[in-house]
Task: inverse folding
């Protein structure tokens, strides 16, 4: 934003007048020139978005397989010798990127000003590179509102979400220091990343365009629902006549911003929709009673035995919320993270602020959340403006 400081011409005149006075004590002046700030922000500002496409299920499977095949035992668990990072130099990340995918932005509030003219439409989709990198030019600039909403629980801010359109190929052949088996592939479905993109700056970097497969979490949800009497497919979950979409949360342990290790035994509650605790096991490793519930990639929702309480957490921090078909305008849903574990050693219970998202028919909404420690660590966490997150 450009603001110019203008001072009226009277200022120059007054200074000139002082220099032309006779010698002696000048008379005190009651004229105090005040600077006038003129907003010179041009209309039609745009923002440049850059980021990457990634398959979070493939990342997890690569991490879990690496731990099982090559990991030493640390604190009773096998740990992959490769660092669990969402970073361009990480082999685990490289094998989880999606090549040549189509990426665009989803406008959550097409006319948030409620005044003409309406904000310009976002640009058309772009194709990611063979490395999974993409750039979207000239997205309309839209700053975060400065006035707090009257009701934060039902307020939908004027943000964009990154939207993957269900194209691309998983980079299963990316090199690693030691061999890893390929992750089962399928078709990607339209997926919106729940991280809000607030285009209040000239550039936004490091944005995730999430790709969710029809052979992973969604297939597990469809298989579970099919056992209740009516056959359900992944495409049915995206059919607005049957469901208003699916929201998937994957909760990660606290750590560095690119640290991605599942937050064990956590969950999410929702103000609306049906909540499922999702688990994972290597494909084909489940006993016969559970095998029909497992997806091609190993995810499953365990049925509740008669008389037993339903699962209240996920051991890998995955929660899926299925929304019923809309009967009118979408009502924003409030999601709250829950960690029932108290541990001084692990600095738990982990936490994060509630998230408010509207259901989006025909689209899977994915929220990968890195949780915060129970007692905040004494270290600054100030995101740069180019992260384009709320509150900047």
Result:
């Amino acid at each position: 934003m450009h603001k110019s400081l203008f001072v009226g011409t009277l200022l120059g005149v007054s200074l000139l007048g002082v220099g032309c006075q006779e010698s002696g004590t000048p008379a005190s002046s009651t004229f105090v020139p005040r600077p006038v700030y003129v907003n010179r922000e041009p209309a039609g500002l745009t923002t440049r978005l850059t980021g990457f496409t990634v398959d979070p299920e493939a990342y997890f499977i690569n991490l879990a397989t690496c731990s099982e095949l090559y990991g030493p035992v640390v604190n009773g668990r096998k740990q992959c010798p490769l660092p669990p990072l969402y970073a361009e130099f990480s082999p685990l990340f490289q094998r989880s990127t999606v090549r040549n995918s189509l990426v665009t932005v989803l406008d959550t509030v097409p006319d948030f000003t409620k005044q003409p003219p309406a904000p310009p439409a976002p640009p058309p989709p772009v194709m990611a590179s063979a490395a999974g990198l993409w750039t979207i030019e000239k997205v309309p600039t839209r700053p975060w509102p400065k006035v707090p909403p009257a009701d934060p629980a039902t307020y939908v801010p004027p943000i964009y979400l990154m939207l993957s359109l269900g194209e691309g190929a998983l980079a299963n052949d990316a090199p690693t220091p030691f061999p890893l088996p390929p992750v089962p592939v399928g078709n990607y479905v339209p997926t919106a990343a729940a991280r809000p993109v607030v285009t209040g700056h000239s550039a936004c970097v490091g944005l995730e365009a999430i790709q969710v497969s029809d052979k992973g979490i969604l297939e597990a949800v469809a298989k579970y629902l099919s056992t209740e009497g009516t056959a359900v497919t992944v495409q049915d979950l995206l059919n607005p006549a049957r469901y208003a979409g699916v929201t998937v949360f994957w909760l990660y342990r606290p750590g560095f911003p690119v640290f991605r290790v599942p937050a064990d035994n956590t969950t999410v509650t929702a103000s609306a929709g049906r909540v499922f605790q999702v688990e994972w096991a290597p494909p084909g490793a489940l006993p016969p009673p559970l095998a029909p519930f497992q997806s091609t990639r190993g995810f499953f929702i365990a049925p509740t035995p008669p008389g037993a309480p339903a699962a209240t957490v996920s051991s890998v921090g995955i929660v899926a919320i299925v929304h019923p078909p809309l009967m009118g305008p979408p009502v924003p849903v409030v999601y709250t993270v829950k960690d029932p574990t108290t541990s001084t050693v692990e600095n738990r219970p982990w936490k994060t602020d509630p998230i408010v998202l509207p259901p989006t028919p025909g689209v899977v909404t994915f929220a990968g959340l890195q949780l915060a420690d129970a007692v905040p660590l004494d270290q600054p966490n100030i995101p740069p403006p180019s992260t384009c997150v709320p509150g900047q």
Remarks:
- Residues 1-26, 37-41, 110-119 have pLDDT under 50 and may be disordered.
- The first strand starts at residue 3 and ends at 6.
